[in-house]
Design brief:
Blueprint: H1 6-17, E1 23-25, E2 35-38, E3 43-46, E4 49-51, E5 62-64, H2 68-77, E6 88-91, H3 97-104, E7 110-115, E8 118-123, E9 126-131, E10 135-138, H4 150-155, E11 159-161, H5 165-186, H6 192-195, H7 197-217, H8 220-236, H9 243-249, H10 260-269, H11 275-286
Parallel strand pairs: 1-4, 2-9, 5-6, 6-7, 10-11
Antiparallel strand pairs: 2-3, 7-10, 8-9
Helix pairs in contact: 2-3, 5-7, 5-8, 5-9, 5-11, 7-8, 10-11
Bound molecules: NADP nicotinamide-adenine-dinucleotide phosphate.
Residues 2-8, 25-27, 65-68, 70, 73-74, 77, 91-93, 115, 117-121, 243, 255 line the site of NADP nicotinamide-adenine-dinucleotide phosphate.
C-alpha cells in the first residue's frame, strides 16, 4: 500500500483483519513508524510490514491512498516491483486519476474507490477513525467484482462493488465542487453555506452549472438532484470543515485540480460555460497552495 496516511492506515487495518498481508510502502529515507489507530472504543498498534519499494517483494496488488496530486508519482515510484497484471486500486478524492494511470501504464488493471469513511492524523503516527461510512469500488467496464475484492467485502464495513464507479465518483465530485471550494475561499464551516443567503445563492449557481455539465457528460441522476443533494449534505455536515478548507488553513496543497479542475475539463470538452466554478477554481489556486 502506498500512502500511509489517515485513510490508508484505516484501510490497511481493515484488509489485514480480512487476512491480507499488507505492506506499507514508504519513501526512501523515511524511517519506519509505529502507527497507532484510534477507533471509537479502542486504540491499537498497527502490526504491518513496512518497506521501501526497493526493499519490498514483487507487488501483486497495490492500493494507493495518497492525496490525488500524489497518486501519479506514487504509482510511478512502484513501477520496478509492480507485477504486469497487478490490480491497482486508487482511493483518493477527485477524478482523472484512472486516466493518468492508464496514460502511464496502458495495460495495468486500474480500479477506483470512493469512501465516506472519515479518518484524520492526530500526529505523524496516530490515526483517528472519525466516522463510519460506505465504500464503493469499481473499474470502468468491470461489471462483476474480481476475486481480489473478496477481502475488501469481508474486511471493510459497508463496502460494495460498483459496476458504474464513474457515476459514483462523479456524484461525489459534483458535491465537492458545490461545497469545498466555497468553504475554502470564505473560511467557513459547511453549514454557513446554507445559513448565509449570499452563500446559499452561490451554491445554487454552482449547482446549476454542475447540473448542465453533468447532463452533457451523461451523469443524468447527478444532474437532476445535485442542487438538493448539495443542500442536504451541507445541512448534515453543518459543523464540519471541508478537507479543502483544512488544507488551505494548514498551508497544504489542495485537491482542487482533481475536483473543480476536472469538472472544468469536462465542461470545456462539451462546450458548456461554467464561469462560477472557473472563478472559484482560480481563487482557490490563488490562495497559495
Ligand atoms: N481522511 C479522510 O477521512 C478521507 C475520506 C475520504 C477520502 N479521502 C481521500 O483519501 C486520500 C488520502 O487522504 P488522507 O486524509 O488519508 O491523506 P493523508 O493523511 O495526507 O495521507 C496521504 C499519505 O500519502 C503519503 N504519500 C504521498 N506520496 C507518497 C509516495 N510517493 N510514496 C509513499 N507515500 C506517499 C503521505 O506521506 P507524507 O505525509 O509523508 O507526504 C501521507 O502519509 C485523499 O484523496 C482524500 O481526499 C480521505
Amino acid at each position: 500500500m502506498l500512502g500511509a496516511g489517515a485513510i490508508g492506515c484505516l484501510f490497511a487495518s481493515y484488509l489485514q483483519r480480512a487476512g491480507c498481508t499488507v505492506t506499507l510502502l514508504h519513501r526512501p529515507g523515511t524511517p519506519e513508524r509505529t502507527l497507532r489507530l484510534e477507533l471509537a472504543d479502542t486504540t491499537t498498534t498497527l502490526q504491518l510490514q513496512q518497506a521501501t519499494v526497493a526493499d519490498c517483494a514483487p507487488i501483486e496488488h497495490l492500493l494507493i491512498t495518497t492525496k490525488a496530486y500524489d497518486v501519479r508519482e506514487a504509482l510511478r515510484s512502484a513501477q520496478q516491483k509492480l507485477q504486469p497484471d497487478a490490480p491497482v486500486v486508487i482511493l483518493a478524492n477527485g477524478m482523472g486519476l484512472q486516466e493518468e494511470a492508464r496514460e502511464d501504464f496502458p495495460t495495468l488493471p486500474v480500479y477506483c474507490a470512493t469512501t465516506t469513511q472519515g479518518a484524520h492524523r492526530v500526529d505523524a503516527g496516530r490515526i483517528r477513525h472519525a466516522g463510519k461510512g460506505a465504500t464503493f469500488v469499481g473499474g470502468a467496464g468491470t461489471v462483476l467484482p474480481p476475486p481480489w475484492f473478496a477481502p475488501w467485502k469481508m474486511g471493510v464495513e459497508d463496502c460494495h462493488w460498483d459496476a458504474d464507479i464513474d457515476s459514483a465518483l462523479w456524484h461525489k465530485l459534483a458535491i465537492n465542487c458545490a461545497i469545498n471550494p466555497l468553504t475554502a475561499v470564505h473560511g467557513c464551516v459547511n453549514g454557513e453555506l446554507a445559513e448565509q443567503p449570499g452563500l446559499a445563492a452561490q451554491v445554487a449557481g454552482l449547482c446549476r452549472e454542475i447540473s448542465q455539465v453533468s447532463y452533457a457528460a451523461g451523469y443524468t441522476a447527478t444532474a437532476q438532484r445535485i442542487a438538493q443533494t448539495a443542500m442536504d449534505v451541507i445541512r448534515a455536515t453543518a459543523s464540519n470543515q471541508s478537507s479543502m478548507l483544512q488544507d488551505v488553513e494548514a498551508g497544504r496543497q489542495t485537491e482542487i485540480n482533481y475536483i473543480t479542475g476536472y469538472l472544468l475539463k469536462v465542461a470545456d470538452a462539451h462546450g458548456i460555460p461554467a464561469p462560477m466554478n472557473a472563478a472559484l477554481y482560480a481563487k482557490v489556486n490563488s490562495l497559495g497552495n
